[in-house]
Every structure is written in C-alpha cells, then in structure tokens.
Target: acetate--CoA ligase
Amino acid sequence: MIKARIPPENPDAILNSYSQVYQSFSWRDIESEFTWHGTGEINVAHEAIDRWARDRDKRDRKALIFEKAGNVKEFSFLELRELSSQWANLLIEHGFSVGDRLFIFLPSCPETYLAILACARLGVIFSPLYPSLGFDELEIRLQNAKPRGIITHPDLLERLPEHAMGSVEHVFLTEGPGLGLFPNEIVVRGVVETLPKKSNIRWVRGTTPLYLIYTSGSTGPPKGVVHAHMDMLGHMITARYVLNLSEGTVLWTDGDPSWVTGTVYGAFAPWLCGATSVIQGDQFSASTWYRTLERHKVAVWYTTPRTMTRLAEAGDDLPGRYDFSHLKHIATVGETLSPEQFYWAKQTLRRAPHDTWWMTETGMICLANFQSSSIKPGSMGKPVPGIEAAVLDENGELAPILTMGELALRPGWPSMMTGIWQDAPRYQAYFRFKDWFLTGDMVTKDEEGYYYHQGRNDDLIKLGEKFIGPYEIEHILSLHPAVAEAVVISQGAIGGKTSVKGFLTLNKGYMASARLNHEIKTFVKANFSPDLPLAEIVFLEELPKTRSGKILRRVLRAREKGLPSGDTAKLKE
Model:
C-alpha cells in the first residue's frame, strides 16, 4: 500500500473542510437549492438549462462548446433552451410521451445533447449508444428496451437490425437524404428549425426515469441501468465538491455520452452548476487533447488514467508547447490511477490528478480525492459527503482496517439507479446483504479512511489462506522496465494449488522471448512473494479494454476456458 502523501493542492476549494462538511451534510439541505423545493415542479432540464436561460444576466453565458475537425460551435443557456425545445416539439409531433424510450445512436455531434435535453423536457427516457456498436449489440438493446424511436445518422443506418425494429415507429436522421432502408425514416434537418422555440416542460416525479444506459454484465447480457430525474442532487453536489465547479467554470469531460461519465459530467452536472461543458468530437491524439485544453481555456479536466498513459507515450516534450495556465484541476475515473501515472501528470502537466471512483449503477462519483485534502497516490480517496461506505467480508460483516473485502454503500443517495430494465432479479442481486448496496469491487481501507481498489470480486487470487487482488501483482509486473501494461487472472486450482497467469504488453525496444519471460517471473517473485504461483506469462500486442480503460478480464478468462469471448472491438462499451 502506498504510504506517500501529497499535500492539498487547493486548500481553498469549495469543499474546504472535508471532515466538517461530511459530518454535517444532509441531502435534504441540498434540495433547498433547487427551484422544485418551493414549487414542487420537478424536471432536470429546467434546473440545468431553463432557470439559467430565464435569468437576463446569465442566459447568454456559454453552456456548451463543441469542437470537431477544427470547427467550433458555441451554445448559450438560452440557445440550448430554444434548440432543445424545437427538438422536444419534434418528438411531440410524433407522439412521444412520458416513459417512451428514444435511442440516440450518433457519431459525436451537438445533436446528441439537444436530443438528451429534449427527452428530459418531456419525460422521455433517452438511451445513448456507442456509434461503434454492431448488429448483435444493437439487437440485444432493441429487444430489451423496445424504443419508440431512434435518432441516428445515415452512415449508421445499415447497422440497425431490421428484424429487431418492431417497436420502432420513427427513425430520425440528423442529415439527409435517407437511404430508404426503413419506411419510417424522417430527415430532421430542415424540419426541426421551423418548429417553435418554446416547449412547455413536462413536470415529473423525482423517480421518473431519465435515462437508460447499458453496461457490461459479468454473468449475462448487458444490463440496462435506469436513472431518474432526482439524480440531479448527486450530479450537482459532486460537480461542486469533487470537480470544484461553480458558475462560469469551464469543464472538459473527455468521455463519450454513451459512457455514463459523458452523460453525467459532460452534460447535466456542469449545467446544474451554471458551468460550461467542452466536448471534443475528434478521435484521440496527444496534440488534439493538449490543444483542446489550451484553446478553450479549460479550468477542470475530467479524464481517464488510460488517457494519461497515451499522453505519456507521446513524449514529455509535447506538453511544453501548449499553455495550460487556465487548468486548475485534473480528475480521473475508469481504471485505478497508478502512482506512476499520478507522478507523470504531476511532473509533466504541473497538476496532480485526483482519482475518483463510481460506477454506472451509482449514478454519481462516490469516492474521491478532494482538492482540499491530501492525496495518497494509488488511493480511490474517501467517500463523498452524503455517501456512507464500508468494506464487508464474505458474511456481510465489517472487515478490519487494511483487510480486503467488498466495497459496499449504504442505499439512499439520490443518484442510485432505480432498477435494471426488465430484470428485477439482477437489480436485487446488488442488495444481497441487508441495508447495503454491493458494488462488486474489492477494496481495502486504511486507518485514515482512504480506500484502495484491489480488483473485482471475481478477479481475486487465493494465495495460501488469504485472497489478494490482481492489482498488487500487476503493479509489481509494471515495475519491470520491459513491461508496458499487465493483467493477471486466476486459473483456479490445478493439482490442489492456485495458478496465476499473466498477460503483458511490452515497451518499445523489448521483444518477447523465453528468456524475458523467465526474467519477469523471477522479478515478480523476488519483489512480491516467492510463493506466488505465477505459472505462465503471455505476451500480447494489446490488452482487451473498455473505452474507459478498464481491462476486460472476462475476455481473457473466456479465452482460457475455450469459450466465446466476443469481438473485443465491439465490447468497448
């Protein structure tokens, strides 16, 4: 466990006293900051957009900056209200009402965000889909959610499986002409602009579903996680306390809206704070990322450890060509931020990245390293105010300090998912211990309340009488100069003994060989434990990962067992 401590980077952050705020925090107090607290009229689109648009002093502030291929489009809060109202009127004309589902299957474009807001205005459930999804992935989602409509682009139209489109009454195309593949195609461009720029908000209950987002399941097909309008409380408070957003702050969350981070912290969270959201629509390149930070004077950047690695691979000289003087805060999410990634960013970008933890099901950041608190590199941080966390053993009892167990959260925070679409048993599985939400993530907690990720509960490796997380072994592997990335899995008991298998990618200048294989094994046992049953190491060109950089261990396990692992290019969501 990492013992290093980095002093607070910004003691004057909005959350300037963690312990004091955490102890006195009340979600009921936060409710008073929303207009619906007094009116009883609830809708997240009103709180995120309309209330700013109605303020003459704030309506013209930038809400969204979208860049793609060097072209920049800027939208004020007033413009987002008017444009999303036109899109809402389009949906009304075609019969959409509260509870209907709309799939958003688009390449990166502003229309995604207009459609999201339009759905929120009407109580329609939106579901953003990765534009890389293939035929089979789309079929699963269509058959599960049975959407009334799909917004897409002609270039993606041929991917839609016709036999699974029975529920789809309308296929909205952002551009024309249509291809005529479906009889219900509607070209939006040229039509939506003629519709009224005003649309009445449909007031809903706090539990009314807002969006449906699909996430990988370890034991079944993708799960449709349902979130509601009341999520807005968690969105706003984490944007404020973790990302340090306030009115006018420029935030760049470099995640696709089909990933929950892109939906929550690329749209709703910054707008609820009156902040500006930057969206970069181009594919990743180090120069594009650095230029985006400079060009749009980004103050807060929410990114992934994987992005840090890719930037580091581009060299330490490149950042010096750009002006990052406006950048005040970096936060990360996805896989665990390693100490090596932390120190690279701190030295090269002159900002210490603050790792965070949450998952699609939690709906908001739940653990974080705060700007006003010390950082322990390698730690997930501490619970966000309003979140009660614990480490539970296999019997649901509290595990001792520094003992690994499953991360559990006390139910009741407002952004917690309200269900798994059409699958109540999978939802109930999260609550197998009374009064706790089980995350499936294995962690340890130190004496100061910092949490450390140790892998998923099905990634555990038994060594003697205890379980160890793969992260510990992978960290030692990554210290070898030849190793670029590493992942280990348990092969189960062979001859009564647990066997561990490692999968590695190599740094430039190193070639796979039997000699290097033996050298790395010896290195790990010398630096971790001579009893570690690291039976085999395999060199790969690339490790299977999600878009956020999480290793797809289940793909490696499936391959080891000779089971279908799927097309990894299509598993990235």
User: Anything to note?
Assistant: The mean pLDDT is 92. The domain at 458-570 is CATH 3.30.300.30 (GMP Synthetase; Chain A, domain 3).
